[in-house]
Amino acid sequence: MRSPTAPPAMPWLLVLAVLAGFAVDLSAATDHIVGANHGWNPNINYSLWSGNQTFYVGDLISFRYQKGTHNVFEVNETGYDNCTMAGVAGNWTSGKDFIPLPEARRYYFICGNGFCLQGMKVAITVHPLQHNASSKGSGNTGAQGETSAAALTRRSFAWLGALAAAVAAFC
């Protein structure tokens, strides 16, 4: 009579390698905390803050504020310019809002509790990720392009490492 054998480890290791790759890819995103240590409050120059940030597809923008006093609305350019609810695309009220930036475009955020007129608004531009920073016409120049290329290289090595670990376990 034959004794029962343990299930093969190969499929589980492959799943583990794929999950590790996803975790590494997600960890490459940057969480931009609006206003840094000042948070989302009136009378802060958010244009200056956003001008010192570089946003890429997949990053997050986070708003930290007193729940019940402030909130966050994503609006269109008209809503941003006039501090109105024109073109509302989303609203958040938790006081610790993490908002994904899934596409390359201009985003506009305001406080909808009347504080927009006191400066609680921020506009950002999200840039596409450069998949091949060394190719001609990629538009990647300067330190930002090098940073993006370095992040992609780290992701590639992490994927290769996870795959190598999975293959080594089978040999």
From TrEMBL:
Question: Boundaries of each Phytocyanin domain copy?
Answer: 30-128
Note the superkingdom of the native organism: Eukaryota
Q: Which UniProt keywords apply?
A: Disulfide bond, Glycoprotein, Signal
Bilayer-crossing residues are none
What InterPro entries does this protein's entry cite? Cupredoxin, Phytocyanin-like, Phytocyanin_dom
- A Pfam family annotated for this chain is Cu_bind_like
Signal peptide range: 1-28
Q: Which CDD domains match?
A: Phytocyanin_like_1 (cd11017)
**What is the documented function of this protein?**
May act as a carbohydrate transporter.
- According to its UniProt record, which protein family does this protein belong to? Belongs to the early nodulin-like (ENODL) family.
Protein name (database record): Phytocyanin domain-containing protein
